[in-house]
Specification:
- It is built from eleven helices and eleven strands.
- The protein has about 260 residues and is α/β, with parallel strands linked by helices.
- It is globular and about 70 Å long.
């Protein structure tokens, strides 16, 4: 009986930090290109974290980049979020390239796992070819101004951020921490939350202290709807559908009255 009571006491004491903090942290994973589906998923996740009373939302990020319009939507959500957003580039080998750089810089707390990299944010045309020099300059200047205003708002390295756009500079997690691009290097989400505990961030103009040590972590996977939209939003998949549609229309032109190929196309 005494041994059982002692065991219960040990379990209670071990669980006490989480019980006392009473905090929960929502964690989502983005391991894809930045597209409209990604932007909608992050927007929905922020709303879910707010309604669920979460202390903060952690976005585990691994992306080669994506659409600038979707990036602007995500950045807008992060800058106006009513709760702290922690963007964590992970796992080892992950990247926050191109559009991912903007997203990391827009977070309240930016973190990277060991063995990750960030940068190379120069805008690239959808066709992959060389743009007209005037259009290229306009796109670059616009992206540079965009990343500067994000960096200024989050008190990050403005000079490096602009170089990431204009010169496609990319750096490691240790260089990013040294150059004030990110705030934390952490090997796991749990360690990130421990290191982030007690940090003061500005949320919608008001200072707020993070209480994340010992918080309960709730992982949320991307639902089937967002997975499907993500697949359909992939430029490679979209191009395949474009070719299938084109061939369907051509088959209908060469075989009038077939109906099905033309309608499908």
């Amino acid at each position: 009986m005494i041994r059982r009571s002692s065991l219960l006491l040990v379990i209670f004491l071990a669980a006490m930090p989480s019980f006392l903090s009473g905090q929960t942290v929502h964690v989502i994973t983005i391991d894809a290109t930045v597209n409209p589906a990604t932007a909608e998923y992050i927007h929905h996740s922020i709303e879910k974290a707010v309604s669920g009373g979460a202390e903060c939302l952690v976005i585990q990020l691994n992306t080669p980049g994506g659409l600038l319009k979707s990036t602007r939507d995500i950045v807008s959500d992060l800058l106006t979020a009513p709760i702290p957003i922690l963007v964590y580039v992970s796992p080892a080998g992950a990247q926050a390239a191109s559009a991912g750089t903007f997203i990391v810089l827009a977070s309240h707390v930016a973190a990277m796992a060991p063995g990750t990299n960030i940068g190379a944010a120069h805008p690239v045309g959808m066709q992959g070819g060389e743009k007209d020099s005037v259009m290229n300059e306009k796109a670059t200047n616009d992206a540079a101004a965009f990343i500067r205003t994000i960096s200024e708002k989050r008190s990050r390295n403005v000079h490096w951020a602009e170089d990431a756009v204009r010169q496609s500079i990319s750096i490691t997690e240790t260089e990013a921490l040294r150059d004030s691009v990110i705030d934390i290097i952490a090997p796991t989400v749990a360690e990130l939350l421990r290191l982030a505990d007690g940090r003061r961030v500005i949320v919608n103009g008001s200072p707020r202290t993070l209480h994340t040590a010992g918080a309960t972590i709730q992982q949320f996977e991307m639902g089937w709807k967002y997975r499907l939209l993500d697949i359909l939003s992939d430029p490679n998949v979209a191009y395949i559908f474009f070719l299938l549609g084109l061939y369907g229309l051509l088959f209908e032109l060469y075989n009038p009255g077939a109906i099905l190929p033309g309608s499908s196309g």
